[in-house]
Amino acid sequence: MRGKLLLLTTVIYLYSCAAPAVTERPSAVLPPEPAGKVEAAPSADSSSYLNFILGYQAELEGRWEDALRYYEAASSEDPASPYLKVQIGYILLRTGKVKEATERMESVVKDHPDYLPALKLLGQLYNGQKRIAEAIEVYRRIIEIDPSDPDAYLFLGVLYASEKRYPESVEILESLLEEKPDSIMALYYLASVYFDMKEYDTAEEYFKKTLELKPDFDAALFNLGVISELREEIEEATEYYKKAIRINPHNVQARERLSRIYIKEKKIDKAIGELEKISRQLPKNIEVHKRLGLLYLDGNEYDKAIEEFRIVLEAQPEDLTVRYYLALTLEMLKKYDLAEKELMTILEKEPGNVKALLHLSYIYTEREEYEKALKTYDELIAADAKPEYFIYKAFVFLKLKDTESAARLLEDGIARFGDDAELYFNLAVVYEKQKRFDEMVTALKKVLSIDPDHADALNYLGYSYADKGINLDEALALIQKALSLKPDNGYIVDSLGWVYYKLGRYTEALKELKRASEIVNDDPVIYEHLGDVFNAISNKKEALESYNKALKYHEKEEGLKERVEKKIERLTTEER
């Protein structure tokens, strides 16, 4: 609610600007007779009357330049009339000539210090130009001349508050309420002042009094919602915002606050609904498009997210954050060429942008452009060296089947960053691919010395022991601990089944491997293990079915096809 009272000042300014200088009939232009009133409109028998009537007609038709010309002519014929000068001032204001209008009114007030129409317009002009101190003095003068003018009290109260002169603001608004206890705006502005003073209980009291007089005052409901939100009374805040929106569907502030509540409550569909309505009402509100794009992205509605991000970038092409999210969304859709284009645009502006480099490296890897990926990872490491970037680059080397470079890179990372569990773990994986079993075991034990609860290292070491048929009791303990940390991990369940198989505990092995295949139903190694267990218990039919399922996914495991085909051949031969 920062800037609340500034908003109120603006509202008053707009309201007063909207007030026409004349009404529907010339006779109705005369303001109520104030104290010190000099004169009214030209009389019908005066020489300026014809020009005044022509000016009035032009004003009614919105022909401001013609109105100004006629009023100027009328004023030149009747130079002593402050009324005509005020009419000219209004036309100047309407045509954007604020400085000239101000100078004219200052001149009128100098010659006629008690002429209320001139003072009111001058106060309005000062207020609109943020000349607050001068506006305050004008409205104080208006109240001195006409203590019964409620608008002057309202203006003055809000102006005091805009200057954080809260006691004076409260005093002037309460004095108005003493005379007019049913003044809705006095109650509302007083509530707003107490809100800015952070006296929320008193503010709430006055907002509720406002609603007693005007139950459909959506701005009061909105502010009560904000107070409830500040107290973390979210249900009450939600209801206030909903009521405000029911009364005024165009209350954008209420929709915006309600959307934020929905986001916090993970009610993404409802949040999107509110923001979409705001976007329809304010299609040029770029911030709404940003938030919609992020919500669509979070909800996997990628095409809609792209539309919103492109709207933002059309208006703000330099917004690199939104461009990054656009690239990320395109990446999710595997539109790698378009994503690359957006990322390259970011890097042209910010050559060391870490997020852009990271995602560009990923795209090159996905497109199997491994040399480009390695080069981009080098740029990334140069910009912001982190252990994970060494791991990602090592993965590219593995894609190139260059285990030596992968191992050397990870060893360099360890030399740079010291005891990093993930670097050691990935080095162990590389050692395993190089058939360096003892060094693999050493690296895995190092991981567990750094992080005893590293589930993947526990599983990897336990499985490796089981696969070699060594340290089986230790392997079982390692895998059981890993499973306690990740109870629904199908690969760890597979390891447990495998160690049971190696221990000759086939019933338990079969149970766990079946469970593993239910969790991960496209892994060839799990089906191979199932086939081995079925074979061990002489269930040749189930063994063959499992081996054939393994072959269905053999691309995922190098060397598996040849190995399983030999097992199938042996089984088939035995059956003959």
Describe the structure.
The chain is an all-alpha fold. It has a domain of 181 residues: Tetratricopeptide repeat domain (Serine Threonine Protein Phosphatase 5, Tetratricopeptide repeat, Alpha Horseshoe). 76% of the residues lie in helices and 0% in strands. It is built from 32 helices and no strands. The longest helix is centred in the C-terminal third of the chain and has 16 residues. It is elongated.
Set down the secondary structure blueprint:
Layout lengths: L3 H15 L30 H12 L3 H14 L4 H13 L3 H14 L4 H13 L3 H14 L4 H13 L3 H14 L4 H13 L3 H14 L4 H13 L3 H14 L4 H13 L3 H14 L4 H13 L3 H14 L4 H13 L3 H14 L4 H13 L3 H14 L3 H13 L3 H15 L3 H13 L3 H14 L4 H14 L3 H14 L4 H13 L3 H14 L4 H13 L3 H13 L7 H16 L1
